[in-house]
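Give me structure tokens for this 203-residue protein.
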Amino acid sequence: MYDLTPHLDAEVEPGTNLLLTGPPLTGKRSLALDVLADGTRNGNGAIVVTTKDSADRILKDYKKRVEYEGNPVAVVDCVTRQQGVGDVREDDRIKYTSSPVDMTGIGIKLSEFLEVFYRNQGIEQNRIMLHSLSTLLMYSDLQTVFRFLHVFTGRIQSVDGLGLFCIDSTAHDDQTMNTLKQLFDGIVETSEEGEPKIRLAKS
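Here you go.
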């Protein structure tokens, strides 16, 4: 089981994918990072796919939550090369794709990290965060993003991981949101008032 407390009062089965949805600035990114950091404390792998912030910024924010040196924490950065920073080098902790449009690349980099964590450190439980689906939908149409997510969530399910996917609910119409929600095992809603609410689909 993956324990989401104290941030969300719930436990979820391995292989669960959750959609974190809410208006801007309601703490979706921060909440997802908190859940990943809890996993790091418990010996889980953590992989962040970022389409908004650079890997350096993600790791800086992560370090405020938990000391990760020596732990399996990694970032797939879809931002830096798109911004024209061409001389960045990949290492054990950071891999780059050319842009958020390179969804094939995102999937490959994720699989590489999962394989390395398992092979080198015997890590079998991983928490994976994608921030943000809204950026993917800015660059690609809904059908393309849906197909990518179908494969991506399936990959997380197949390795008994925990997937956390952030989306700005106010940036997309109801049809888009309802289409994407089909892919997830539960929804976490953030709001300007009160605590996040989690709704898990009945298995």
